[in-house]
């Protein structure tokens, strides 16, 4: 074991206190933490267990990320810790589970990983570490095991004396001479050779007796005079952070998680079906207690592990598989959903991220609950999380989303319509058609707003239905949302609508929008309609008729073709002064715009 001088301790204390932890050091700690977890999972579970695969994937990903950025990871191996550039980055003092001790005991002092390390090589390395850790200490030789593999991107350094003693060193046999009669006295008599050996060892370790070796030569050694480690000093205040760090590390695997791991290990290994069932019942009770305490991180862990275990038993034990499936379905059942809603309404849920993650594991049964949460939630952030949850569900299966949009749930139905717009594919548009004739005006408007944003080719088919809606605002919004995409059906529908007698009774804005749609779609055909509107005479509803004529004039102005100008010139001859004046004004604006365009073109040609 290495002993630090007071100067070394002062330097380390200075670094801890004044120098911030580098990003590289922090990432090293993350790599080693995942190394430890992957190693632990491999020791506990069989290699085909999903937990083993998942932990190794995380370790490999983090190692690959580190080596890509920094190219190498060089660790110093101490008895119970790894250090990186002089800083302790991993510590475990339990010899049975300590990774550093596993390497250190066989003489390894440096361990390095380099860029180019492949997944297979890292997997083989972890397998060797696991196999050596399973051997009795006297049979284990991690250095020799790694040496035989000759890894390309994993290198190490081991002291020669360790290698020599392990490979060719002689083992000195100890001659034990035990006097059985002395056992009952409870006292050990030391020989002179024993006393000298104790003094030499103390001196080597830095523990000195109060008197020198020469002074104690002819005296019995009093063990009270030896400064053993626990006699040196009491714990200093400046040691508190390090001790707290060790304690925090020991708590990194919470007792509840350890209990879950233990129960699943028992389930995996248990062959007797009655004991398997009893253990599963115990786990189920434990699971219910976790739900009661709103610990949805652990609840998700249990539900995921149950699913993994069920898949492992597929084809091996149908009886166990059925028991596991029943437990999973109970967790997803109606009574469980009702209880979760009760927790929400009683404000017992604090961590909504873990809660919604858990609800995803419950599948489609959780969707009505999420709909309730969206409606009942007072905080916008919770509504947003619920909305994102529903969006992800809808991306996979839109029909599940539609089922929660009920007649009486106006706000939720509008949110579902918005989510269909976010999804935006043809299937989503077809589902919007189900809402276009809804009794509630707000929902019909929401459909139109959503269709306007999507810009899908099938939109017009739904929108033209809204052009006949009983509500003026709905009709106008639908007209604004119309986009010509080469479909004759839409153009002909609007054209026929504009030719009807009832057209003049519509609002000014609605008529203007519909006429503009025709003009921008097929100007020549629109001009013929606009000319007929200007010529039309009526003794009844004269104000509405004039309003329609005034709506057609700006449309002709916008077309500005020679045919449109001729129609305006005819309109300027009409006896109705209001209409005549409007046509003349439109012609002046067309002429002014044409002149401006000619001037602009001339300047561009000169330039």
Mean pLDDT: 82
Task: Report the total helices.
Answer: 30
The amount of beta strand, in percent, is under 5%
Could you name the ranges where pLDDT drops below 50 across 5 or more consecutive residues?
14-19, 162-172, 228-234
Strand order of the largest sheet: 3-2-1-4-5
Walk me through this protein's architecture:
The protein is mostly helical and 607 residues long. The chain folds into five domains: 162 residues, no CATH class; 78 residues, no CATH class; 68 residues, no CATH class; 76 residues, Leucine-rich Repeat Variant, CATH 1.25.10; 102 residues. It is built from 30 helices and five strands. Strands 3-2-1-4-5 form a five-stranded antiparallel beta sheet. α11 runs parallel beside α13, α15 packs parallel to α17 and α25 packs across α26. The N and C termini lie far apart (86 Å).
How would you describe this structure in keywords?
elongated; five-stranded antiparallel sheet; 4% strand; 30 helices; 607 residues; mainly alpha; 5 domains
Furnish the topology, listing elements before pairings:
Elements (H helix, E strand, L loop, with lengths): L5 H13 L4 H22 L5 H21 L1 E6 L3 E4 L2 E5 L7 H6 L3 E7 L4 H16 L7 H8 L4 E5 L1 H8 L24 H14 L23 H4 L7 H11 L4 H15 L3 H20 L3 H18 L4 H14 L2 H12 L6 H11 L4 H10 L3 H17 L1 H5 L7 H14 L2 H7 L8 H14 L4 H8 L5 H10 L6 H12 L8 H14 L1 H13 L6 H18 L2 H10 L5 H30 L1
Helix pairs in contact: 2-3, 2-5, 11-12, 11-13, 12-14, 13-14, 13-16, 15-17, 16-18, 17-18, 18-20, 20-21, 20-22, 22-24, 23-24, 24-26, 25-26, 26-27, 26-28, 27-28, 27-29, 28-29, 28-30, 29-30
